[in-house]
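Problem: given the chain below (139 residues), write out its structure.
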Amino acid sequence: MAESNDDDVFRPPTVEGGASAEPGPPQRGGCLTAYLVLAMIVNPLVGVVYLFFSDAVSEGAPGIKPVAIAPLGVMSLANTWAAIALWRWQRAGLYIFAATTAIALAINLASGLGVTSVTGVIGLAILWALVRPQWQHFK
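Solution.
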């Protein structure tokens, strides 16, 4: 009878090449990680500037109507929460990004900002391209 090593009892089964058969945490990828980290840094800063320094925003961006500054600040803070949700593998994060992008697009177009209004849509498209390969890991 072959001897049994007690250490083998506690080892997870392996597949060819010696890798563990148990799935590990999903890999986010460098580009998605960079995007989310940047979003978690920049969005709260933009939100604070929009909410607490709205006069400076009005002077620096005269095309934005003063009534639109506070909602844009709130959406920046919502984008922070969305980035954190995506970091935690929650699909709601992408849906929040999509909603805030649509609202910001409408506000920017109503303010007469024209072509520059679509930059948020481009950012959302880039985010979707980065998230899509890992979508099955999001809950």
